[in-house]
Design goal:
alpha+beta, 34 strands, six-stranded mixed sheet, binds copper (II) ion, 9 helices
Amino acid sequence: MTTALWIVVDHAVALLSVATWFAAGVTLALRRTRLALALLVAAVLVTLVRVVTVAMLAGRGWWFVQEKVLLGLPMLGAAGAVAALLAGPHLLSARRGQGDGWSAGGVVSVLTAGYAALAGLVVTFLVGHPLTVSTVLITTSVVCTAALLTARVVAPPGENTADAGAAQASEGRRPMSRRRFIGWTGGAVVVTAAGAGSGMSFLPADSVTLGGGPGRSSRATVSVADLRGSGTPAPDGTVRRYVLTAKKATVRLPSGREIDAWTYNGQVPGPAIIATQGDLIEVRLRNADIDGGVTLHWHGYDVPCGEDGAPGVTQLTVRPGADFLYRFRADQVGTYWYHTHHASHVGVRSGLYGTLVVKPRDGQRADEYTAADQVDLTLPVHTFDGTVVIADRDGQTEHLAPPGTPVRLRLINTDSKSHRIVLAGTRFQLAAVDGRDLNQPGEVSDVGLHLPAGGRHDLVFLMPDTSVALAVDDDRDGGLRLHPHGDAHGEARIEDTSGLPELDLLRYGAPVAAPFDTRDADRHFTMVLDRGMAMVDGRPAYAHTINGRGHPSIPDQIVANGDLVRFTVVNRSLETHPWHLHGHSLLILSRDGKPSIGSPLWMDTFDVRPGEKWEVAFRATNPGIWMNHCHNLPHAHQGMMLRLRYDGVTTPFDGPRGGSPGHDH
Ligand SMILES: [Cu+2]
């Protein structure tokens, strides 16, 4: 069973335990003896099952259960045991015909077990990982308060307690004053604990995390504003100049559908930026009328930090009428894309994106398909209000490719959710992932490719003499068709592709020796992804959280130039989080403890699906302050974003803008 399934089962059992304890308490209060006994037995059994589900989850990782093991279960276990001991004997006597099974202590304790079960569930959903002392104090105070109030209602202090149990009744008046004493002392303790817990929750969090490495050095600082790209191309390169103007436009798709888009130069996608390795790319960004502002972020391209396009971190947002010049050397070959990083959850979705492809200089690429006459298609996949647009076309796109032609399809997912890609009618190689060539990628067919949000896959093959079809999300009517002959349009029908297995990239291609020994990591950061209550941009929200916090209250990850850095990324939530670090590509080490055994897999955006745990590593060799976030852009907007900062690097752009791509100021 997958971890995600155990998470769901555990939620369900937790909910059932809340229901059964409350049902037992209510039926007991109503003196429905037989039903109350049955429900009490059920509640105890469900609680025991809960121990099993939590134990199973604990086997998948401490992050999945910390708050359950340290707080939820002990609280429920203690309350449940007291409830069974207080209510059980009376109910069993009643079953033998002695009394009606009711006792004040029984009702209060069974209902308290219900409060404890509910509190544990609420803590899991609102707080999650990591558990804090503050959470423990507040939660136990709330449960105790509920228990004390229930006791007051069930057996008010002024009332004769003769029916509260034979033992108490025999003690006459004294138990009443003792109960008062317990009530007042308990109340005082609860109020103190709640106050302390609430106070602690307002303590400022650490502003940085060092990942086990040394703290700040006393070295001279450098500003991101000075970390700019080279002003010259390589000796045999040229300067590729572009002007991109961000503006609103109505774009007409081939189907006739019109979309109100935010565009670069009035088109979606924006102008294709194409360069050869060693060229200098120079892009002037102007903003015509995008009110909130725009930037250009070079997704997956390890540009100098000052060119990265992170508003409030590496530059100011480009406002209407303003402009910004980006300049960097095209040293990295492969398939990339660019997009705005300001209010990106709206801007990118609305059309502020385009493609960046850097081709190798002749003879530099150990790739069998470098012939000049190849078909090389760059295919960003984007969804506008439910309509999938591939490159600049909706509906089905057709291309001619004579038999024997080398074909390269560069798929780019510009959406916030993953896409499933199937290529039918030919065997093919997945030659590159996220722009980086794989080592000895084997030929495959009849597989589905999982393309994370922001990710890129390069598919290569030699055109057969029959048609080839590319389907996105198993849609047989849309997608792309390649025909070997001009008269074949419309003939390529494809079978249902939804049942095809997914190609596992961690087992694809051939391994080579790792470039570094990841056991020697200088810094190790763990990011536990979840949902919960957190401050996001100064407001409380039901956020997408990292280690229980939301942007910008998540501590900066500090690294030093040259460090070997390791990330552990754990997803406790039930949504997929495409993880994206700017300015670096990450070597995938393992997923759920199973090591990557295929080609070295370098990714800049990898999907951490529900319940998964990924280990990745990289060498920190690109000084700057880098956004590190979920590329499901609405998630990033709702808190799931932090910064990785090199020791000694500062930004003059920090301040009210806060670096959030989700902010309109
Ligand atoms: Cu996410």
